[in-house]
Design a protein that fits this description.
By secondary structure, the protein is mainly β. It has one helix and 21 strands. It folds into two domains: about 55-180, Immunoglobulin-like (Sandwich); about 185-275, Immunoglobulins (Immunoglobulin-like, Sandwich). It has one helix at about 10-35; strands at about 55-60, 65, 70-75, 80-85, 95-100, 105-110, 130-135, 140-150, 155-165, 170, 175-180, 185, 190-195, 195-205, 210, 215-225, 225-230, 230-235, 240-245, 255-260, 265-275. The strands form four sheets. Strands 2, 3, 5, 7, 9, 10 and 11 form a seven-stranded mixed β-sheet that branches. Strands 12, 14, 15, 17 and 19 form a five-stranded antiparallel β-sheet that branches. β14 and β15 form a beta hairpin. The termini are far apart. The relative contact order is 0.15.
Amino acid sequence: MRAWFLITKDQLMPIKKIRSIALAAAVLTLASGAFAARPALAVDNTWISGPSLTHVSILATGAVASGTGVTLSTQTTTFTLSYRSSAAESGKFAQVNFFDLTSGLTLALTSANPASSAGCDQQVLGGNSHSCMFKLDGTGSADVTGVFGGVTASAALKYQLLSGPNIAQTNPANISFALPHNTVKALAATSKVMAPGAAVLRFRFYDGAVAAASIRATVALSGIGDHISATSVVSDSKGYVWVYVANLKKKFGTSTVTLTVEGTSATAKTTIKWVAGTLAK
């Protein structure tokens, strides 16, 4: 015996609405899947599991860790994306995505094909240069170099760690920038130099009480002098810079050389006294 059910017009309308809602939901699900960030598939699909930002560091001169990421100096150009784990993850793949860059800020990452512990396979998200899929070395580590451009005190971006092929990702961490707090000192307040001749001056940069490498400063010369070796300098691995001033016209008197840490009012000065004859010890 067949059972028949009569569907009225009023009952039909809700059914149509339900079908429309279901169809729209399906379309949105497909769309969101199409645009979601996905790591590129490695040849063997071997990825890290349970990604954690505790393994990731953004290293640069003057970098200061914060609760949600890191603050870099506005002098930062080159940085290192560092991943540290254990030998148990040797040969596995991981991916870090950088996103939400503020206007004017640029980022370039060292690329490699195939991915390595020192370079990114950036054939991710249609060649997105802000994605870095890398392969861990025998110790479960990787160090990839990146370069920032257009850095200002208001610049910022975010990053997160991903693993695949089934997407797992961390919450985002933040990278911000701040004016440097470095200082600079002249190793001699005054130098006596014979004219004609050349003066060799030495300065050293610090981060607190620690010598600071890769710090940029401008150089200004006033008074006597025909030539100065540079109008901008960068400190070496021990925080030192050398500045040379030439006085070839045999003028007597003084010169002043001033170094100013870029982005700050921190300065150091040294005075050159150009003299005739021999220098007294």
